[in-house]
Specification:
CATH topology of the largest domain: Rna Polymerase Sigma Factor, Chain: A
CATH class of the largest domain: Mainly Alpha
Helix content: 55-70%
Number of domains: 2
Oligomer: single chain
Distance between the termini: 49 Å
Order of helices and strands: HHHHHHHHH
CATH architecture of the largest domain: Orthogonal Bundle
Shape: globular
Radius of gyration: 18 Å
């Protein structure tokens, strides 16, 4: 797979379209960690996320001919995954806007929403460990409605623009914005709740 290391996702995908199955395996390996983490956060269940990961790449394989190679591969992949997660959540079972950089609590009272999603880069003097914070973020995300959690993760975990989310999910731009505002407000409340519920660590 070293032959693909210097190639963009789109170039690797074109190799797959030409019949190179090693290119397909390269994309699976390249996105394994990020996509699985995204799906786990979206549906709140690692086992289900594993299945959805496989379903996502199965659809990538089956729908390869429909992909516009002038577009970026990553948003297409994560949109398919988000749709799979949304279908799973559907089967299993306008709030006040908040600035995304506004403090929403945390041990020092200044933690922002964006800080909380950047769980892979813990502060060295954080009052909770990275694994504890990751678990709290997962708990808070799980308390959001699926549609709100979806846009939140696409925007701040996958760095898609509001317009990209609107285009890929087939919803109006205004709907994306209103869902995002509601999601951030909901996450702020959920974060405060999970941190209050967290037992104090022994000194």
């Amino acid at each position: 797979m070293d032959d693909f290391a210097s190639l963009s996702d789109e170039a690797v995908f074109e190799r797959f379209l030409d019949g190179d199955l090693a290119a397909y395996r390269t994309l699976v390996d390249r996105y394994h960690d990020d996509l699985l983490r995204f799906l786990t956060r979206l549906v709140g269940d690692r086992s289900a996320a594993d299945d959805l990961f496989q379903d996502t790449f199965l659809q990538i394989h089956q729908s390869a001919h429909t992909f516009d190679t002038s577009r970026r591969f990553r948003p297409w992949l994560f949109t398919i995954a988000a749709n799979k997660g949304r279908d799973y959540l559907r089967k299993r079972s306008r709030q006040r806007a908040v600035e995304l950089s506004a403090p929403i609590g945390g041990p020092d009272g200044t933690t922002s929403f964006v800080d909380l999603l950047e769980v892979d880069v813990p502060s060295p003097d954080a009052a909770i460990t990275a694994s504890e914070r990751d678990a709290l973020v997962q708990d808070a995300l799980a308390r959001l409605q699926p549609a709100l959690r979806e846009v939140l993760l696409l925007a701040y975990f996958q760095r898609l623009s509001y317009q990209q989310i609107a285009d890929d999910l087939g919803i109006p731009l205004g709907t994306v914005k209103s869902r995002m505002h509601a999601a951030v407000a909901g996450f702020a409340r959920a974060w405060q709740a999970v941190t209050r519920e967290k037992p104090d660590r022994a000194d």
